[in-house]
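Supplementary material to the annual report.
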Amino acid sequence: MLKQALLGVLCAAVVLSIGILIGHFGISKSSSSEPSWMKDVVKDVDENLIKQFLSEVKTSELEQNLRELTKIPHMATSPGDEQTVQFMLKRWKDPSSGLDDAWRQEYAVYLSFPDPEKPNKVTVVDPSDAELYTVREKEKPYYDDQRHPDVVQPYAAYAPAGHPRGKLVYAHQGKAADYELLNKTVDLRGTIAITRYGGAGRAAKAINGAPYGVVGVLVYTDPLDINDGVMSDTSETYPHSWYLPPSGVERGSYSIPFGDMLTPYLAAKDDTYRIPRENVTEIPPIPVQPIGFEDAYKLICELGGDAAPSDWQGGFNCTYNNGGPGFNTDSVFNNSDVKLDIYNHETVKNSSNVMGIIRGSVEPDRYVIYGNHRDSWVHGAIDPSSGTSVMLEITRVLGSMVKQGKWRPRRSIIFGSWGAEEFGLIGSAEYTEDYFTKLSERTVSYINVDIATFANATLRASGVPSVQNVIFQASQQVSAPGHDSLSVYDNWIKYSNRTSPTHGLIPRMGYLTGAGSDYAAFVHYLGIASMDISYTYDRTKTNARIYPAYHTAYDTFDYASKYIDPGFVSHQAVARTAGNILIRLADSLLLPLNCTDYAESLEDYLKEAVTLYEAQLQTKGISMEPLKWAVANFRREAKNLEELIRSSHLANDTPLKARRINDQLMLLDRAFLNPYAFPDQYGFRHVIWASSSAGKPTFPGLADAFARVQSSGEPRDWEKVHYHLSVLSQAIDGAASMLAEVI
Amino acid sequence: MLKQALLGVLCAAVVLSIGILIGHFGISKSSSSEPSWMKDVVKDVDENLIKQFLSEVKTSELEQNLRELTKIPHMATSPGDEQTVQFMLKRWKDPSSGLDDAWRQEYAVYLSFPDPEKPNKVTVVDPSDAELYTVREKEKPYYDDQRHPDVVQPYAAYAPAGHPRGKLVYAHQGKAADYELLNKTVDLRGTIAITRYGGAGRAAKAINGAPYGVVGVLVYTDPLDINDGVMSDTSETYPHSWYLPPSGVERGSYSIPFGDMLTPYLAAKDDTYRIPRENVTEIPPIPVQPIGFEDAYKLICELGGDAAPSDWQGGFNCTYNNGGPGFNTDSVFNNSDVKLDIYNHETVKNSSNVMGIIRGSVEPDRYVIYGNHRDSWVHGAIDPSSGTSVMLEITRVLGSMVKQGKWRPRRSIIFGSWGAEEFGLIGSAEYTEDYFTKLSERTVSYINVDIATFANATLRASGVPSVQNVIFQASQQVSAPGHDSLSVYDNWIKYSNRTSPTHGLIPRMGYLTGAGSDYAAFVHYLGIASMDISYTYDRTKTNARIYPAYHTAYDTFDYASKYIDPGFVSHQAVARTAGNILIRLADSLLLPLNCTDYAESLEDYLKEAVTLYEAQLQTKGISMEPLKWAVANFRREAKNLEELIRSSHLANDTPLKARRINDQLMLLDRAFLNPYAFPDQYGFRHVIWASSSAGKPTFPGLADAFARVQSSGEPRDWEKVHYHLSVLSQAIDGAASMLAEVI
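Predicted assembly:
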């Protein structure tokens, strides 16, 4: 009995032990001891969600968006602009496919318009003041779009009003070198210069001429530059093709800086201090008017004087002469002047950004910003509505996922529909000035899709080197339009590629070295890892500077859907690629920003700088060693950080480790900012990507300083070269220290 | 049998179930399902550790540190300085009480020294060039300390070499207003001005005089300003008391900007670009020499001309006359000139910071920085060695805890022993320029303890308003020296207090509005929440401008231990308070930075600005409403954030939530930076605390702009007032948006 009892107790003990073991190890205890937030904080990007996103981007929606956006002209602050504001707000507040929140944000900004009551006028007047010829006031209508009363007359925004009159000369592209050359044989004092688009910025064509005494400037688009030589609207140009009709005129902002010009480095609110208007520089000092090549033909082919240099000749079937100054003696215009009557006026008006957000679940204080401007010059089907259509399709698909409770990004997403970009990237620049510190400290990346489809051949992407990787990754997952079995990436590499020491043959990304669209304030002023994405041309098929209807009354839904992207498949490819990038930036546990790719670009720039400058710098006793050490230092720290990332298991580690590494990657570009490096270039602080006039593929401040001393020969200008070397070396060292072991 | 068997199975099942229940609920599974890092990431500051720290801070160690540090003079870059570098490194690398790591970091900086071979000379010379009187070359020795060969001759660093000679005038404190007044009755052209310390910065005394034709400047310390009138060294002054002996001379830097003057906004490395020396401004344009009041007495009491205004009179038993210019006709110096022979020279020399770190365990990428300069003018017992002694005692106690494995802070701690502070805060400024972005992005707070003990009466603390709370908290836990039952806080409130709308009666903190010590680059250039801590005077007992031996050969261990802090109890109180603050900043789960206290200070400043300026601004059509809205906005967002903090259980929430709120608090001051607001004030970017000359307790840029237009009457100067209102409103709005819900 005792034995039996003992056996019973023993059995019970064994069974109890088994029970304890089962209870302890066999049953998951996650609900009680693992905090509820654990799963969320270590979650990585979900590839199935990306697949779902890609499958839900619809050409039909993209087409419908574009149709809505282009119903009427929507120049900044016009009634049509207000209509697009309302349209964006309605879409982003939609209860089933909208965002978490959306609102309008206004800035009071300095704009320039022609006078609808007194249209700008360009005439040829003989010595008795008789008008022999009058340039067309508006573009020729082919459809109702061109007849819309809100089509703004072609004008040069920010060119002053005035009534200059003088003998005509042909000044090619209006570059400084063009006027210098022309001035050697022609007395430019009191003349009107006709110039063509390209070569120099819009404002520069007037700013460069004024010192020689030029009193007014005409600007036109030469058929050679835009139409592959095609000129006739009876069969060749739009509406028969994508080419520019003879009366088409490129409008544009004739100002150099970006952002509101009256409120530098301050947000343009109602009560903000504004500098006196006479202190606004970097706009034309003399009246300017853009005209079509139909009119330019009449003027240029009547010019007297010597024949212009061969590389100044264009697409017209006549010799481009310099101008006597003035017209040929056997011309009907002999002895006549050209007269400009310009009635532009500047005014401060309220322009709206429309902002929309999706709140982040785990790191709401980290922002991925996606933006495009909303304002156009006329209907703006391609510029910017193709991009706005893409943005709206991305927000529709993502917004629906959020509203259905299927998804919430790890980080917050901010969408910006910027106002008044056409006047100088104003809406986006004011936004960055308004929230400078907040955006600096929290923004992971900025994605810009302005013109989504210049054409339908291939992807084009520009950005800081750290975003190359995520663009590649995303574009590999999207089918190229019209090629079901070819990815956007594989198609891209066929059109534009390079050999990277690290990656081998890869598509060639561009750099964001200028201020071509709203990425400017983000990359140059805030130092945020930015990118710009679009679909573009097959360069073997056209030499057009840009799509021919750019900034004209022909950039319409009809034009876009017939000649740029029939079927909206390129819009779709861009929406899928950009949306994929956006999701990856918002959802990845480890930010998909690659610092060794940055090292590669710095090494390229260094190599070029050494080749171009070192020998001469040595003769001046200026050493490039600190720059070499800095780049080597950056490479070493980038490699170390990448190894740390490779050897880490972030999902098993404290969430503060992922945050720490992500902060290192996110803030890398901030270390390249220097607010004192370019005192003459408003808003440019990024010492690697700032705008440069030297045209060399290397560090901009160094290249410009070197070019300056080469031309001036002033010993003091060598000091600037040395200064920029120090700025660069220390910025790169500072960036390397951001990548180094944090302490 | 069946029944028995069934019973057995039933029993077994029950036992098994019990086992399972025990196994599942009874035994903690933390090791398997709760990640190992969980405990660390939610750990808060440990009050027991603070108690232990407080108990281990020893007066004997503080005394011994000071004795070691003051053995020989250690002016920047001197052999004595190198000796202190070695001493710091030895202590910080000590295997049982040192830090995780320590190293030296050198910058090549622009310094100014007298010539030991040709000492500066000040003489009275008669018309036949006979020397009637020669000013003492070195201070009178009482002990070996003063006889040490490395005691540098008194000089005005950065004042140029030269040999000016002229009639003497008395220009009071050398303020602009002083020269302006004096010039009304005395022709200042070609004169030597004698001025006294106080009222204006050192360099200003020469910069203000030169435009009137003054060719040389003498500077002395009036006994009224430093010695409560006491003058005789036979019984009254040191070595009989803390008062300045008659031959004592305050040395100092006669430069205005901080940081190395040849490398503005760049770290002064060997190859860094240096501006031409002739471009260095804001230093005296004419020779200057500081002298003792023993010599000043001889000169001033012989001056001719009218009696100087009553508020220009000083502690000498004679009437201070303006000077004829020159001496009294019945003086032995009648018709004589004063001649300066100044042989100062500038040179670029390597100066060392000594850096030491304790790595953070949870957030190594967050830094608490604690610093003090190491260089002195002579032995520098009080300035700066009292602070260095305190820093070494803090590192000894904390280092021992780290080496014993008892403690590792949540965040990283960086200790900086700065070089060349006396020449213009150079070591700390170069450090912030060298690691600008890294320090901006990661630094939680900067604690400066330079002169730890001006005197032994009460704590003195200055800082941005958000650090008030942690200073109060820490000082409540430390006993006041000599008062076992009274805290440092309760003692402090007796000496200096104010009534806060929120807190009632509290000690009065100062603001960091100038560049008095190494906090300058941290708060003004980087926008880091900074503080400066010391023990100081009972103002009912002395009117001395500063402790009398300041910058003289009498600031020795003997002086400090006898007359400033016998028993080293004030050193101990400062070490305990500052160390407590440091531990709280490094270890608290939620950063102890308080944003509603910031709101209170902004409201004070606003109230003052409205009182002083609003009526006149209204007459100019400039509205103060945007500033009022901004301050109200800041208050609202600060209150909301504080409520969010109160309602949060950070220890139970994702560690990313604490990090998010901490980032909001840490980065608050960054939003107040504007690199364009003060183009004429090097390194000043913080629009709330920048240096101001208007002397009003309100926003500095606004106050200075208003003062300027009041004096100039220029309509254009009203624009600057409006500009600064916009800068301020937008900075405060930007700061409010940092506190607002993150998205």
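Chain A touches chain B through 87 residues (CB under 8 Å).
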